[in-house]
Amino acid sequence: MFQRLIQHELDVWLGKPDRKPLVIRGARQVGKTTVVHQFSKRFDQYIYLNLELREDRRAFENYRNLEHLLQTVFFLKNQLLSKKESTLIFIDEIQEVPEALNILRYFYEQEPSIKVIAAGSMLETLFDKKIHFPVGRVEFKVLRPVSFPEFLEALGEHAALEQLRNIPCNDYAHGKLMELYHTYAVVGGMPEIVNNYAKNKDLVALNPLFDSLISSYLDDVEKYAKNDTQVMHLRHVIRSSFTEAGKRIQFGGFGNSAYRSREISECFRLLEKALLLHLLYPNTSTTLPLQPDLKKAPRLQVLDTGMLNYFVGIRKEIVGTEDLSSIYKGTVIEHLTGQELLATHFDALGEIYFWVKEKKESTAEVDYIYLHDSKLIPIETKSGKTGTLRSLHQFMDLAPHNLAVRFYAGEVSISAVKTPLGKTFHLLSLPYYLVSQIREYLVWFERTANSQLTHD
User: Fold this and answer.
1) Distance CA 365, CA 378 (A)
2) Cα separation values, 321 from 181, 243, 328, Å
3) 9-27 per-position pLDDT tens digit
4) I need a labelling partner for 83 at 20 to 30 A (CA). Which of 6, 151, 241, 411 fits?
5) pLDDT tens-digit map of 130-151
6) Which residue ranges form the domains of the chain, and what is each CATH number?
């Protein structure tokens, strides 16, 4: 069983005294149903309802009151209503019956002892103006592609996983972990593809799965586009997003098209709601609050780096490289770093950010900024000498702290670096495969850096 991160989130939800029905959001085929099926094993009774099936959605379409709904559902699924308190009800594809979303509030208000989870994709895109969403009566979690630790678990690489979580990582584990991370970059984090690779260890056999996955997303747009013209625009945006991923984009003419900014921006909003892509807007400050500048060009993040690498045809280059920053002008490792940072955000408002300083004479851009202990920590994904991290130096000259992080192809190290303006800061250099452990390493880094200052 992998995807332990979301299983932990489900455990926390289950233990809450004021538990609300839980809605799990996520792109199609990201593993929502599998996660809940795994979680259901701890309950005496499990009722699975798929609202794409007529017989399962009929009870919600003909809703009278909650008591009647429960009697109908328990009877149809051959479960005992007397054991409702030890029952998990899972309402899958809830977007197929928008009225069912409002019914969730009655579980919270009238039957709080029943554990209810719903899942769906594209929820916001399907809301009818007459449907009242139960604000304050439900809780949200977002499921994203499989993280690197979960990938190792799926492959049965338990020793590698143990070393990954060791702070700091032992030097002897570096070579194998780097090799496994390159494989993760090729395979990506979509559960069906990860499972296939775990069973067969055959990268070529993944090709038809990637084809099918991308085709399914292209077909899905018919379900939430408002007309045939928007279907065409949405499909163009999906295809072009793979080649534009990792770059800052303009909506007008996106993907070498003649489409207008308004048409394309509306498509991006729909695809963001469907969680197929993510727009990262830049921060211009080195201090809190985090306040992205929505007037500046965003950077594009697609759902999964494995799909990106397949679509643009660079998988063979990744397999044969020693340094991911040398592939596709550094786009692969920067994008995968963003995917790993997002993988730990289960809240609906989870975001990742980057930093820019734009002037007429020059532009500085830091790949990511990470909130840690009220500090905005800059993160770069570049190999090479520390003196070449020009944008990072500019950030640190403005920052009220002295901590920075760089992901690269080398081993764990901490070094004192001086900017051209004379500020000294501590740089934590981590191998790419440790992105998922950033929170734990920052605690260790801050403690270690402070210890060095005391001794100095």
Assistant:
1) 10
2) 12, 21, 11
3) 999 999 999 999 999 999 9
4) 6
5) 566 787 899 999 999 999 999 9
6) 4-142 (3.40.50.300), 148-354 (no CATH), 355-455 (no CATH)
